[in-house]
């Protein structure tokens, strides 16, 4: 398998910025909702980790090709 078929085919299709940015922003938004909700202390406890994971994911995804 040549490098061209990998770069031009399935791998580059999976590592496009658009869908992954949407996932990362949704994760950040979900973490904020978990942070401000008044019903569950467990959700509140995991909110910081969720926001942090979304932020780190967004920083990584921002280096993907468009």
What does this structure look like?
This protein has 66 residues and is mainly alpha-helical. It has helices at residues 3-8, 10-14, 17-36, 41-61. Helix 3 (17-36) runs antiparallel to helix 4 (41-61). The longest helix is centred in the last third of the chain and has 21 residues, at 41-61. The radius of gyration is 16 Å and the shape is elongated. The two termini are 24 Å apart.
Structural class: mainly alpha
Q: How would you sum up the global shape?
A: elongated
The number of helical runs is 4
Helix-strand topology string: HHHH
Cα Rg: 16 Å
Low-confidence stretches: none
Major β-sheet, in short?
A: none
What is the percent of helical residues?
A: over 70%
Look at the structure and give the mean pLDDT.
Answer: 86
- Classify the beta-strand content into a percent band: under 5%
Distance between the termini: 24 Å
Outline the fold blueprint.
Layout: H1 3-8, H2 10-14, H3 17-36, H4 41-61
What would you say about this model in short?
The chain has 66 residues and is an all-alpha fold. The chain has helices spanning 3-8, 10-14, 17-36, 41-61.
Keywords:
4 helices, 66 residues, mainly alpha, 79% helix, elongated
């Amino acid at each position: 398998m040549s490098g061209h078929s990998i770069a031009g085919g399935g791998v580059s299709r999976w590592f496009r910025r658009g869908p992954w940015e949407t996932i990362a922003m949704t994760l950040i938004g979900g973490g904020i909702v978990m942070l401000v909700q008044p019903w569950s202390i467990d959700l509140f406890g995991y909110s910081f980790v969720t926001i942090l994971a979304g932020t780190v994911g967004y920083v990584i995804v921002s280096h993907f090709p468009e």
